[in-house]
Amino acid sequence: MDPVPLNQADFAPFGTVIECPLPPSATTFPKSSLTSFNVAPANQDTALKFIDVTYMKNRYNTAPSSVPAKAVMNMFSCFPRQPRSPTEKDQYDFCIGDVKVLERHPYATQTFIPLGAAKEAKVRYLVVVAPTLPPTSDKPFTVIGPPDLSKMKMFWAHGGQAVTYGAGTWHMPMAVVGEERMDFVVVQYANGVPEEDCQEVRLIPRAQEKL
User: Fold this and answer.
1) Residue 208: pLDDT band by 50, 70, 90 thresholds?
2) Fewer Cβ atoms within 10 A, N terminus or C terminus of the chain?
3) CB-CB neighbours of 170 under 10 Å
């Protein structure tokens, strides 16, 4: 797969891209109204509030255990992935590897918010997602509604972009590529029941998708 820059239009079937629409050169409060965005002045006209930039979903009321969920916020420090071989790099000169695991959070969204990594930094993160196949008994899947590997998509994202995976969206665990560590605050709902908080599928070698 060839990665494409993360953007809302292409990512819409899988979730939400969170990105400030203002250019870096905007250092003073704008005098004109930003009518194309759901935005309001704030903090005595020293800030702009962009409203509802993403939506948090909590569907644990439909989970089999009936255990209620709570909002949780964790931090992940992600180190650059090792390449499959020293010569295999993508068009941004970032080493990449294989998709070995996909996971989903069937009852909640999950938002990754990068910390401190500038847009121009020599580090990116990969967003790999796949839609869900209809339930079937014809293949030896270990979950109901497995990922459709034939429609897997890959995006690269920079430190100025956060991403929300929609509830039930299959995605690869966070993968950072480049020369630096990348830290993320991760926000989601969870109820502490492992099979309801996170479901995984491991890809056997013959089914692995090369990145």
Assistant:
1) very low
2) N
3) 25
Per DSSP, 61 falls in state G
Tokens at residue 158, please?
Answer: 């920079």
- Please answer whether residues 203 and 130 qualify as being in contact, where contact means their C-beta atoms are separated by less than 8 angstroms: no
Q: Look-up: residue for tokens 């000169």?
A: 93
Tokens linked to 51: 């409203």
CB 188 within 8 A of CB 76: no
Cα–Cα distance for residue pair 78/127, rounded to 1 Å: 14
Cα 13 to Cα 102: distance, rounded to the nearest angstrom: 17
Q: How many CA atoms lie within 13 A of 182 on its CB side?
A: 28
Residue 128: closest CA among 30, 34, 3, 21: 3
8 A C-beta contact, residue 207 and residue 201: no
Q: How many Å apart are CA 119 and CA 209, to the nearest integer?
A: 28
pLDDT value of position 39 = 87
Q: Let me know: does 127 contact 163? Beta carbons within 8 Å.
A: yes
Q: Which of 91-95, 100-104, 202-206 has the highest mean pLDDT?
A: 100-104
Sign of the CA dihedral with 183 first, then 189, 191, and 193 last: negative
Nearest to 109 by CA among 68, 169, 171: 169
Average pLDDT in the chain: 85
